Amino acid sequence: MTRRGDTLLFDAPPTVAAWAAAGGKKESEGPLASAFDFVTQDAAFGEQGCENWEQAESLLQRKAVELCLRKADIPRSKVDIAFAGDLQAQCTASNYTMRELGIPFAGIYGACSTMAETLGLAAVFAAGGMAERVLALTSSHFCAAERQFRTPLEYGAKRTPTAQWTATAAGACLVRAHGSAGVPVLSVTFGRVQDFAVHDINNMGAAMMPAAASTLLRYFSATGTSPQDFDAIFTGDLGEVGTALLHEQMAKEGLPLDNHKDCGCLLYDTNSQNVQAGGSGAGCSAAVLCGKILPMLAAGQLRRVLFLATGALMSQTTFLQGESIPGIAHCVELGGAV
Amino acid sequence: MTRRGDTLLFDAPPTVAAWAAAGGKKESEGPLASAFDFVTQDAAFGEQGCENWEQAESLLQRKAVELCLRKADIPRSKVDIAFAGDLQAQCTASNYTMRELGIPFAGIYGACSTMAETLGLAAVFAAGGMAERVLALTSSHFCAAERQFRTPLEYGAKRTPTAQWTATAAGACLVRAHGSAGVPVLSVTFGRVQDFAVHDINNMGAAMMPAAASTLLRYFSATGTSPQDFDAIFTGDLGEVGTALLHEQMAKEGLPLDNHKDCGCLLYDTNSQNVQAGGSGAGCSAAVLCGKILPMLAAGQLRRVLFLATGALMSQTTFLQGESIPGIAHCVELGGAV
Fold first, then answer.
1. Of A88, B28, B150, B315, whose CB has the highest number of CB atoms within 10 Å?
2. Which residues of B fall within a CB distance of 8 Å from A317?
3. B191 touches chain A (CB under 8 A)
4. ipTM above 0.90 for this complex
5. Contacts of B81 in chain A (CB under 8 A)
6. Shortest Cα distance, chain B CAs vs residue A108, angstroms
7. What is the tens place of the pLDDT at every residue in B300-326?
């Protein structure tokens, strides 16, 4: 392992050996419909015995884990440790998932940056010999998130044009030590909190953009690379507003992003699906990673990408107290399949 | 690094190079009063410009970090990464602390087990060469926690005899790579979620006990040790109810705990301080670790201990939905000062 600035470069890269994405109805109607390993038309999972949205989100996580481990062809008892987190207060979707799985567990909170944070920690553990098989997972659920962060759905509140739609989705990755077949994790950069005093809870893209720019700039500076060294740079989830701001900011920095895609703009058709500025939620970038980015790397359609998940670190309490919304972005560099 | 079962043993142990504990008024009146590096008589921090309990908790964290880094004699710019988390929904005390500190940051959620989880991850990063200087920190605040998990203080709700008092306290540790002076971290064991169907939010000790027993038993089995191999085994925070249950359980397992202390029973005088069954909150075990355990190891009064922080993984939402309360316990093994 080599450390350059905030970036950890793996000399013997661990690999993402298997992955799976699970989603709900709206996600099954979007451009990535065929990318999901599992979709449900009933995101309440009523027939499966779920009594509320929070339980349903946890079940969606378990579907992603089950399918991921099935692809990896290992039982859950062979997993050494799991990193998981979600948007629910006290990360209960993940806690209840891990109760069912019974795997050693380190709980994570990174808001919508969770997929990159858990994948980064999983890669560190696999690269450092702390574990042979590590799970990284996260989720979000539109209905659980709306009533927690904004208003209960029953109120029928109007959504502003800058609002983003919390994805009902989950993603799970199994990371293994160097030498296993899969998609190599080349580096990890843990982000620093940025706060540019955005106070609008319906404009997450603007709140998170500075964190994305900060981590990207630190990564490029530490590694001596620039955007054109990558087949693609994926952020998640800035939506249309945050994406436009990021392009503007990076152009000002002399590093225009010509090969950038945002997971929040990939998961839904922003013209026809009534998601306003795009998707969000920890499950959004997780599902795009597991449904699209990793498969394209595995198939040789991409050979080197940055996956930069962004999170807004407020709560409903701090928002009502008038606090601004800090953001964070963690970056995972992925290479062509080995 | 050697892996045995769920336990990571460090062949070249990283060290806790510096630490600090910060607390409030009640904590300054308890048996560990002199153990704190900082205490305030106004836990609202009104004169410091805090407008609410949540901000005050974040400020308490920053006090602990400031003092810890001052003892280590390094500026915060020299810290490679920080692991932090707390009990507030979306871990906002830590998020806002990290906004002020500007250090690369991985957010953690482990409820009251957070100090052991962050310290364990910090030790892994320092041992594996991922970082040279790592911060591990956490906090809790009685007033922020009560209104979030139970009822606002203004309601004047009666407390049951099994209830525990959330500590207004914070602890911070600076972990450095092997070879630095300090208290060595000999091993880390990340726990597995346990749920013995306790539904009483005023009996956290009973809810968390099975997790403590599970992690202890896995640790002893993996390492071939037994309780008498340690000068002391500290849990945090089971309180009097959980402690009695743990002693009963471990005796049944043939591993009686004669040298066990619970951080929840150490921080307050349970006879005179009106804390019912003892202290709790992520800051409770953090303050006892930084105020008592680490100083005793540094002074040669202890030579080998287990620090086993326990967390209850519910939220107010899951509690009201009738879910049972899962628990988790992470274990950090500490040695005599080098």
1. A88
2. 54, 88-89, 92, 148
3. yes
4. yes
5. 190
6. 4
7. 999 999 999 999 999 999 999 999 999
Q: The tokens 């603007």 sit on which residue? A: A206
The answer to whether residue A140 sits within a structural domain is yes
Tens-place pLDDT, residues A307-328: 999 999 999 999 999 999 999 9
The answer to whether the beta carbons of residues B199 and B314 sit under 8 Å apart is no
Helices of type H across B224-257: 239-252
- Contact list, B54 vs chain A (CB under 8 Å): 317-318, 321
Test the B interface: residue of A10, A90, A100, A118 with most B CBs within 10 Å: A90
Q: Which chain A positions have a beta carbon within 8 Å of B55's beta carbon?
A: 321
What CATH number did the domain enclosing B14 receive? 3.40.47.40
Rounded to whole angstroms, how far apart are CA atoms A239 and A285? 11
Please answer whether residues B242 and B205 qualify as being in contact, where contact means their C-beta atoms are separated by less than 8 angstroms: yes
The residue range of the domain holding B145 is 2-176
Residue carrying the six token digits 């922080």: B309
**pLDDT above 90 for A234:** yes
* CA A295 centroid distance within chain: 16
How far apart CA B280 and CA B263 sit, in angstroms, is 8
Helix axis angle, B53-72 to B92-101, nearest 10°: 50
Smallest Cβ distance to A314: which of B92, B125, B330? Answer: B92
